[in-house]
Design goal:
By secondary structure, the chain is α+β, with helices and mostly antiparallel strands. Helix content is about 30%, strand content about 35%.
Length: about 140
């Protein structure tokens, strides 16, 4: 029984998410509330982690919390190997990340932005965008 549940969750997380629309405002609020509830052990979250197959992520940088709709990485540089954990999985896994990224996304008002991020913030964003693309570490 537990093996079936784990298989179902993994199958769901490996599906590519669909674009967020103005009809998804309730999902944005759910993600924000869930991240806040898990603040001690979580710095980012994607909609599919809480059951919505939508391209919505939220990232807590420590200074600000950013919600990004329909994010996609348009530039990346300075690759490195690291280890990450995930609320959706047990344990730590090796993965490849980029120290500098440029991301095209929309804010909660669906205004387009291009942001440049580096370091740990860039790593969090890459992890959450991977979730949107059906990639789990």
């Amino acid at each position: 029984m537990i093996k079936n549940i784990v298989t179902d969750i993994k199958f769901f997380l490996q599906k590519k998410s669909t674009s967020a629309t103005r009809l998804d405002a309730n999902i944005i609020k759910d993600i924000q509330d869930t991240l806040l509830a898990n603040k001690k052990s979580c710095v980012g979250m994607a909609a599919n982690m809480i059951g919505y197959s939508k391209r919505i992520i939220i990232v807590d940088t420590g200074l600000i919390t950013m919600t990004m709709l329909n994010p996609k990485i348009i530039k990346k540089s300075e690759s490195y190997e690291t280890e990450e954990g995930c609320l959706s999985l047990i344990g730590i896994r090796k993965t490849k990340r980029y120290n500098k990224i440029e991301v095209e996304y929309e804010d909660v008002s669906f205004k387009k932005h291009i942001g440049k991020f580096n370091g740990f913030t860039a790593q969090i964003i890459q992890h959450e965008i991977d979730h949107c693309n059906g990639i789990i570490i």
